[in-house]
């Protein structure tokens, strides 16, 4: 363990509204990726803790204390939860920074405001949701379609945006009346644990929202296999997503999967480079490139190729790497030593494959940076789309620039990937860009922008980037099921069409 020069925080599991040690009393360390120091010690859940969390969530769901509240009662509490989050914004942002390496600049703005806004927007959508729909009368019966909660949801989240990705599942699950057990990634459980405490203070009944931290391979799999869990909402790698889908089949569970990406950004010959070049860098350097929808394949037309490369290298040198708690830092560290090794390994692969390194390509070790897991913004030129650095998700600040000659060729390269999370076009001609957008097989298309999300717009993947949608109105369908209720109105046997079938 790394020596600490500060007091590490202590966190337990949050089950049935109470801070709870792991049954085994074991803990694990959360490391601050900017310093390598232990930021927190967290109770390490085992199978007994999964049992306790799922049993509580199930019992509370069945009791109706949350599931049978009116939509308005639930929406009021969720809005209170949003206000609590704003009041505790600084603490939540701090927890996110010291575990995930998010910059405080981003965490305090888009993350905190973003999750509060998601709660408010989801609560508003839930008030307009068609819980009961009457069908047209075609005979002597009253027919209705009821939409009901699923029951117990297990949410399994990754380490890159722990708070945001937990909220994308929590908000719709809670709004629709489900109970939930969240299993955050072991690098970053802190903000999710804090959210559970704030939920109780906001009036969400104990046991509705539980958090257990620990290894995915044991407690994650136990959640997926548990017959009392009705749905698994997963965000993470495509590899683990496949495994979850396979395991969920044992109990024919619903699954939504938000997985990896290798998103193409097409730069058309008429692109405004004063906007496009900073936009491309933002596309692959936000959160040190650890974003599922990062624009990591940059497709540039022949006519602009050399200029784009030169300007990318120039601007990349201006991104300030530093401690993410410093408000002037633009790019923080990668989440872990392991991720650092993975990213450096891919950079070596790019070199070995014959791609040309235009800038970056190294671990950043100047001064204080040497303590953390920093990588310089890295651009590869002369990349072919069949190289590994163009096909696999690197999850670091590394872009592969690919040259093209015609729009048809650009679209073909853009779609030549197993992923389909996002894609984008940079052009001065909006109509041309929209036309290309129609050809791109991805769940989100950005034109002259990147990473732009809003709580009323759905987010999710095409192809092996997953299925199901988060955010937007569509997400409420993912946390409900439909029931058809037929009430016959004719009292006499002889008026029933089936009377003559059997007797
Ligand atoms: P990961 O797949 O390794 O882990 C995600 C979560 O799954 C963690 O909580 C982990 O503990 C758990 N887990 C691991 N093995 C498991 C198993 N066998 N059964 C059940 N749970 C298990 O992903 P990560 O490294 O934490 O995150 C990075 C990945 O997430 C990237 O591939 C990225 O593209 C993806 N991601 C996708 C989106 C999206 O919305 N599409 C958003 C963010 C991240």
From TrEMBL:
<feature type="domain" description="Aldehyde dehydrogenase">
    <location>
        <begin position="19"/>
        <end position="485"/>
    </location>
</feature>
<dbReference type="InterPro" id="IPR029510">
    <property type="entry name" value="Ald_DH_CS_GLU"/>
</dbReference>
<comment type="similarity">
    <text>Belongs to the aldehyde dehydrogenase family.</text>
</comment>
<keyword id="KW-0560">Oxidoreductase</keyword>
<dbReference type="InterPro" id="IPR016162">
    <property type="entry name" value="Ald_DH_N"/>
</dbReference>
<feature type="active site">
    <location>
        <position position="258"/>
    </location>
</feature>
<dbReference type="InterPro" id="IPR016161">
    <property type="entry name" value="Ald_DH/histidinol_DH"/>
</dbReference>
<dbReference type="InterPro" id="IPR016163">
    <property type="entry name" value="Ald_DH_C"/>
</dbReference>
<protein>
    <submittedName>
        <fullName>Aldehyde dehydrogenase</fullName>
    </submittedName>
</protein>
<dbReference type="Pfam" id="PF00171">
    <property type="entry name" value="Aldedh"/>
</dbReference>
<dbReference type="InterPro" id="IPR015590">
    <property type="entry name" value="Aldehyde_DH_dom"/>
</dbReference>
